[in-house]
Write a structure and sequence with these properties.
This protein is an alpha/beta fold. Helices cover 44% and strands 12% of the residues.
Length: 189
């Protein structure tokens, strides 16, 4: 509650009349960014959402273990649209969490952080991510238990609309997972 989401959207130059989606994938050549990242951003923009793209810092690292040899900074900047799509390079993801009405991730830790806000979360399925990135399957299931899971960009746009039409649908699950993961969010050291 300390970050003014409207001010962040304004700083990003986003149209205040649109809902804002934060796309924050994890880093891995098996992540949603590599599977469909550019199409995810385009599809959300075409569905009339504002889109903030916040990549994991490792996705911007030139080491091919993290990027698969792709220059994601250039690719995401190429997708920017004035007033609608912003590639965010700020180090602190929390400001972008505050600005979002809904978040899309595959399995980034900021997905868990977003649950504290009790706003809709969508997980874009990246089938090989758990194995490739060695993510604990229990953590994957925990995040998904509080989210809508989609497998294509078209499913994503429809899910975002549905979640925003009924934003409290998974509220109980989001609050449960957030309480399991965090002690006194915003006040604990």
């Amino acid at each position: 509650g300390r970050v003014d989401g409207a001010a962040v959207r304004n700083e990003c130059g986003l149209d205040p009349s649109r809902f804002t989606v934060l796309y924050a994938p994890t880093y891995s050549p098996a992540a949603s960014l590599h599977l469909a990242g550019e199409q995810i951003v385009r599809t959300l923009a075409e569905a009339a959402f504002n889109v903030i793209v916040k990549l994991h810092d490792r996705s911007l690292d030139p080491d091919t273990r993290y990027t698969g040899g792709v220059d994601w900074r250039s690719r995401m900047r190429a997708l920017e649209r004035a007033g609608q799509v912003k590639f965010a390079e700020g180090a602190d993801a929390s400001t972008y969490l505050a600005a979002a009405d809904v978040m899309v991730t595959d399995h980034s830790s900021v997905g868990f952080e977003y649950l504290v806000l009790d706003r809709p979360l969508i997980v874009y399925d990246a089938p090989d991510l758990a194995t490739t990135a060695r993510i604990n399957p229990e953590k994957i299931e925990l995040l998904r238990s509080a989210a809508t899971v989609v497998r294509t960009p078209d499913e994503l746009a429809a899910a975002a609309r549905a979640e925003l039409a009924a934003p409290s649908r998974l509220s109980r699950q989001r609050r449960r997972v957030a309480s399991e993961m965090f002690h006194a969010p915003g006040t604990a050291t």
